[in-house]
Specification:
The chain is an alpha/beta fold. The protein has helices at 12-29, 45-52, 105-115, and strands spanning 3-10, 35-41, 60-69, 78-83, 93-101, 121-129, 142-146, 152-153, 169-174. The protein has one domain (11-162): Rossmann fold. β5 (93-101), α3 and β6 form a beta-alpha-beta unit. The structure holds inosinic acid and magnesium ion. Inosinic acid (IMP) binds at residues 43, 75, 98-106, 151-153, 157.
């Protein structure tokens, strides 16, 4: 483990405030709809847990897990579903929750597969977004923070499976 979390990019209070705002928007937008919140494992688990507890609506939660072949800190765009949804999403309003959108390849792949199941709607909610790293065009309707193209960890995000538990988002730095 050569790299370590260095400076704090987004602290707990800032995360807290922004998750609150996103949850309020989602609560307004999905009133009288049929909401299924789908988290992408593992990275989304902390964000999703904080988010859904503030959405003041009936909803169901499910998860997909994907594995991406590639290096530690780079997305290859080659993705495979290793844990599929338990729920049938046909005709339902799906909100896909992701930790971070980098190239966009992972979300593009998952969204394409889930759209084939004909949900009534499918939108994307991502805590973090790196616009400068984008390779494909995807619409992130609910976005927490735009960040520069740095590798970050904490609040669900990992480096080689470490640091997911940190309560803030920190920048990974070479030791
Ligand atoms: P994309 O396919 O390039 O958009 O990459 C998305 C996935 O790469 C995310 O779900 C993360 O798991 C991972 N990822 C991208 N950037 C970071 C980062 O800065 N820290 C931790 N994981 C990242
Ligand atoms: Mg990841």
């Amino acid at each position: 483990m050569k790299a370590k979390p260095g400076r704090v990019l987004i602290g707990r209070r800032e995360l807290d405030r922004r998750v609150d705002e996103l949850a309020r928007r989602i609560t307004e937008d999905y009133r009288d709809r049929d909401l299924v919140v789908v988290g992408i494992l593992k990275g989304a688990f902390v964000f999703l847990a904080d988010l859904v507890r503030r959405v003041d609506l009936p909803l169901e939660v499910d998860f997909v897990a994907v594995s991406s072949y590639g290096k530690d800190t780079e997305s290859s765009g080659v993705v495979r579903i290793i844990k599929d949804l338990d729920l049938d999403i046909r005709g339902r309003d799906v909100l896909l929750v992701e930790d971070i959108v980098d190239t966009g390849l992972t979300l593009q792949y998952i969204a394409r597969i889930l759209r084939q199941r004909e949900p009534a709607s499918l939108e994307i909610c991502a805590l973090l977004n790196k616009p400068e790293a984008r390779k494909v065009d995807i619409e992130v309707k609910y976005c927490g923070f735009d960040i520069p193209p740095l590798f970050v960890v904490g609040y669900g995000l990992d480096y080689a499976e470490h640091y997911r538990h940190l309560p803030y988002v920190g920048v990974l730095e070479e030791a």
